[in-house]
């Protein structure tokens, strides 16, 4: 038993020496560890001129306004049908779209100022953010289209059918007589 422990301890020591040697050799080569990717795939080179970015932003805003109108119409229909669940869902999505649209309008103004100052870096930055906001509105519109309402619309009307087996006797003579207990309950006191 002790010999097995010694072998296990020896293997653990050898493994830790190998790991330490690997770290030491990596540090000796001067290769610093690579920093984690913080862009998460969001970095994209913008090839439009600032003026073209401004025109494209106007297209984005028009699409976003159109999407808002669609969700607003769906909300009005849900209210007319008095569908509380769907109304709450659509109202939430519409509020999120309104906030995103307000932010997009502010970014549009910032982009306009950057174009007037001829600041290509800032205009590219604002245009990228506007693209993300446009995608957010598209996502919210898709979620609004998935808002469900009354369960009956999905499941359909339900009905219950009862069938009684004719072979079962339904004669009151076969019922057992009721048992009436007339014994008083036991006393809770030790003194009688």
From TrEMBL:
According to the record, the signal peptide region is 1-26
Q: Give the source's domain of life in one word.
A: Bacteria
Query: Is Signal set as a keyword in this record?
Result: yes
User: Which keywords does UniProt give here?
Assistant: Signal
The protein's name is: Secreted protein
Query: Which species is this record about?
Result: Polyangium jinanense
